[in-house]
Design brief:
Helix content: 25-40%
Order of helices and strands: EHEHEEHEEEHEHEHEEHE
Strand content: 25-35%
Largest sheet: 6 strands, antiparallel
Number of strands: 12
Shape: elongated
Radius of gyration: 22 Å
Strand order of the largest sheet: 3-4-8-7-6-5
Structural class: alpha+beta
Number of helices: 7
């Protein structure tokens, strides 16, 4: 897509008036109003492409682009703007949802050997509760989620749109870890599930991060596989179901050992998040 765009992109994405993303480089001799400023985000261009495909009867699409955005150091311009290398991913269709989008991002992060953290986003163009800011080592390097239906409608789309945008320059500076290998366990892994009820404002990602940072013996993985809200758990509450994997490189773990570690996990969740085991 073009690096030039229309100044209406900021209004379509509901970017606040005081946001740095609304400060744009204006072209002296543009081809037209629709190509009169240098873009500061890629998401706008991606949404235009997704909406175009949906309007032309393509039932699904999964697309990406790597391109630069342009950010003036001062206005009026006295020097060349800062250029940032960005990645944007967009999708829609029967197989597209927040978790499909997150899965693509997680594959990228695994390849780069970085641990992302997803926290609830307040960006106005993302659906509330279905969008996340993405942090790596404490720095926000992007966002991902479902586009707010009112914003999708602004682009002429009558399907759910999903998009993510990452600052590749910022991400590259954080990719400092080399590859580390450890021997696969020769002994069978053990998996345990745990469902707890917490307040609706507790983020599942925070719970998983706390468990991973707790140094649980022989735990090899932890993930959320279900979130439930409804009458069975009460108003303002939700049930989060998690799966934990354990394996030792030297022997088969016993049921008592696994039970002891699961008790530690439950105690941690109770202490930090006021979690109650779901009956």
């Amino acid at each position: 897509t073009y690096s030039f765009t229309s100044p209406v992109f900021a209004d379509r994405l509901r970017i606040p008036a005081d946001s740095e993303l609304k400060r744009t480089v204006e072209l002296v001799n543009p081809l037209g109003e629709a190509l009169s400023v240098m873009r500061t985000v890629l998401t706008h261009s991606m949404l235009e492409v997704l909406a175009y495909n949906a309007a032309h009867f393509n039932k699904s699409a999964s697309l990406f682009e790597i391109a630069k955005t342009y950010h003036p150091k001062s206005l009026p311009l006295t020097e060349l703007p800062e250029e940032k290398e960005k990645l944007v991913i967009g999708m829609y269709g029967a197989d597209a949802d927040y978790f499909a989008l997150k899965g693509v991002l997680d594959g990228l992060f695994r390849a780069l050997r970085v641990e992302p953290r997803y926290t609830r986003s307040s960006l106005a163009f993302l659906h509330p509760g279905r969008g996340a800011d993405i942090e790596v080592k404490g720095s926000v390097i992007g966002y991902a989620g479902e586009i707010h239906p009112d914003v999708a409608s602004e682009y002429g789309a009558d399907v759910r749109l999903y998009a993510a945008e990452l600052d590749l320059d910022a991400l590259a500076k954080l990719c400092t870890a080399g590859a580390r290998f450890k021997e696969f366990s020769k002994y069978p892994p053990v998996e345990r599930d745990l469902a707890v009820v917490v307040s609706d404002d507790v983020q599942a990602g925070d719970m998983i991060a706390a468990v991973k940072e707790a140094g649980i013996a022989d735990m090899t993985d932890a993930e959320v596989f279900d979130v439930y809200r409804g009458a069975q758990v009460g108003e303002g509450m939700k049930s989060i179901a998690m799966n934990f994997s354990f394996a030792s490189p030297v022997r088969t773990l016993t049921d008592d050992e696994i039970a002891s570690e699961m008790a530690k996990i439950l105690a941690l969740l109770e202490e930090k998040f006021d979690a109650k085991i779901r009956a």
